[in-house]
Automatic annotation (TrEMBL):
Residues 4-26, 55-82, 86-111 form the C2H2-type domain. GO terms for molecular function: zinc ion binding. Pfam families: zf-C2H2. Keywords: Metal-binding, Nucleus, Transcription, Transcription regulation, Zinc, Zinc-finger. SUPFAM superfamilies: beta-beta-alpha zinc fingers. This is Zinc finger, C2H2 type. It comes from the Eukaryota. Transmembrane segments: none annotated.
Amino acid sequence: MRAFRCEKCDAKFLTTLEKRRHERRHRNYICDCKETFQLWSALLAHKKICTKQNFQCHVCDKHFSSKRNLRLHIDTHLSKDDRTVFICPYEECDRYYMYKTNLTSHINSIHKKVAKPKIPCTFEGCSKLLGRMRTYEEHLKTHLATNKTKFPRKPRKDKGQCKKKIIDSLARNITCENLKGENVEINLK
């Protein structure tokens, strides 16, 4: 019989598939910081920590996973005069925003009283209206958790019938009538 040998540790295997599966253990994954890992999942877990440490705010020491997120954050430390801001055009409103979309949302909800379309609950007897799909989905979970009887299980097709395969595996001379009694004798042949 021919054996397949691992080139790194001289372990022997009967098939090339087993050998390749084994050789994956010798593979190393390297992070940008030059640290090595044997498992891909360990590298991914490390990168979550490692990359956050690369982008740190010099003002408040917060960590960020990308340069873009850090740049956006640093703008929050600048004064209103040193950055591009979007000021609310309505009189007696001194609100300002870093992003135009936030200003638009403010104007629509506060000054124009434009209501976002609400999502109605579809369960019978519930008249709740929800503003976001995420809150709607969370709300549906409350209905499903409390009303388990809404979706009853189908009755078993073999309910009340003798399970012959189980009986045969236990003993050959037991009948269903014997199983219904409290004391059952099992004679194995």
